[in-house]
Write a structure and sequence with these properties.
six-stranded antiparallel beta sheet; four-stranded mixed beta sheet; 12 strands
């Protein structure tokens, strides 16, 4: 994932350690993971053996790691939990990271959830891994701000830098088993729901600022936010933060196709979509895409049913009728 490249670069340049192997998913699996990083290139360039494996808990992989006789395992960006067999291999444990200020926001996609909820602060937590999901003892934490025009990509860049800085700062103590550790309260914090691409649908019946936050939380390198026109996805990759919020039309109504983009009404105002595309297409300037696609003022993005609106915000189960 995003953070893995920064952490690997930090380890490669540290005089304190000699990385003995890098385990990374096979290319075909990595391409299916939003934001997954290619670690094989920099590892091979540094002469480090690379094992391409999607399941690090397989007995063959555990045996591979055991044969390396590592002092420390650094796990970054894995979407599957490390099992006890692997966790018990390195002399001084496995250190990992989570892109929130634990125990807040355990679970997947913490940065995306934070942005789409309008939060202004997230963070990165370095912890000694245990078999639970983001429940290990905390070694260190760094706060990371979220600005009004940040996207998931720009925030993750800062999260990645924070992770690399924490690892380098604590590496001497980690290598001797003397790193500071603070147990988490199992009852504290919250657990985020898993996100899927279908959850990117835009509920235009929300304030313009909330729609803007939604889009920037889900844009590249993630699957993206989208509106529904005649049952088809129209991808919305970037919007301009609203300057005012005054009623301008029914939510989802296309108000204008301007040189700078496509203006769409939301609840109590509107916002300018500056990058959009058809499904499966890369982001494009919204005005030129709209002209090619025949999108004109008066078109209206479909309303999102209340039960779907709750689901995409993590407040309810997936409705049966979601079919896009």
């Amino acid at each position: 994932m995003h953070e893995a490249q920064a952490v690997l670069a930090a380890l490669l340049h540290s005089p304190l350690v000699r990385p003995v192997a890098v385990i990374t998913p096979p290319d075909e699996e990595r391409r299916r993971l939003s934001g997954a990083a290619d670690l094989a290139g920099p590892a091979a360039a540094a002469g480090i053996p690379v094992l391409r494996e999607g399941d690090v808990n397989r007995p063959e992989v555990v045996a591979f790691v055991r044969a390396l006789d590592p002092d420390l395992v650094v796990a970054v960006g894995w979407t599957r939990l490390l099992g006890q067999d692997l966790l018990s291999v390195p002399r001084h444990g496995c250190v990992g990271f989570h892109a929130s200020l634990l125990p807040q926001h355990r679970g997947r996609a913490p940065v995306n959830w934070a942005i789409l909820r309008g939060e202004t602060v997230t963070g990165n937590t370095m912890m000694l891994l245990d078999p639970g999901a983001d429940t290990g003892d905390i070694v260190d934490q760094r706060r990371v701000s979220i600005g009004p025009e940040d996207t998931c990509a720009t925030v993750y860049e800062r999260v990645a830098r924070a992770g690399a800085e924490m690892l380098l700062a604590h590496l001497p103590a980690l290598l001797t088993g003397n790193a500071p550790r603070r147990p988490q309260d199992p009852a504290a914090g919250d657990v985020l729901p898993r996100r899927t691409p279908a959850m990117g649908v835009i509920d235009w019946d929300r304030a313009p600022r909330a729609v803007h936050d939604w889009v920037r939380a889900l844009t590249v390198p993630y699957p993206g936010a989208f509106g529904l026109l005649d049952g088809e996805r129209v991808m919305v990759w970037r919007t301009r933060p609203p300057r005012r919020e005054e009623p301008e039309g029914a939510p989802g109504l296309v108000l204008d196709v301007e040189p700078g983009g496509v203006r769409v009404a939301a609840r109590g105002g509107s916002l300018l979509v500056t990058e959009m595309s058809g499904r499966g297409e890369p982001p494009q300037p919204a005005a030129s895409w709209a002209r090619r696609a025949g999108l004109r003022p008066g078109a209206r993005f479909a309303a999102v049913p209340p039960e779907v609106a709750r689901w995409v915000l993590g407040h309810g189960p997936r409705p049966q009728e979601v079919a896009w």
